[in-house]
Amino acid sequence: MTTDAVAAMTDQWRRERPDLDPSPMLVVGRMFRLTDAWDRELRGPFAEAGLGNGDFDVLAALRRSGGPCALSAGELSRTVLVTTGAITKRVDRLESAGLVTRSVAADDSRGRRIALTAKGKRLTDRLIGVHLANQRRLLGGLDEGERESLAALLAKLAGAAEAR
């Protein structure tokens, strides 16, 4: 295996602090570096479509919700894992672009339903294909079995993190 920057760091820590085990950095450090690199690579098509950070997450959550492609701000917040304040800002941008609409919730006049417009649905359907192709490309160094193993290991780590 080629030595990367994270491996070099752990080697340095082993030399300087032989009493410590820096091996967790081999996973965590690489995950952070991959996340940053992949985020930069995956963001392009969204920026080209005029979407800000996180806007596609809202569109995708609405699109995959089924039916009328509509959710409340609270449902969106839980699905996208950001605050309702962040959802409000994103929905403001998307509404200005004609990609979503807001309406009064039928079951609560204080609540609002956010729904995809036809334009928003077309854009989301186009971008999800591009996004998945980009993700597949980023994972191109792994075969199918390796991708499945990695997905299972990451699910295990995510479950442990959620349990804390």
From TrEMBL:
GO terms for biological process: response to stress. Residues 24-159 form the HTH marR-type domain. GO terms for molecular function: DNA-binding transcription factor activity. This is Winged helix-turn-helix transcriptional regulator.
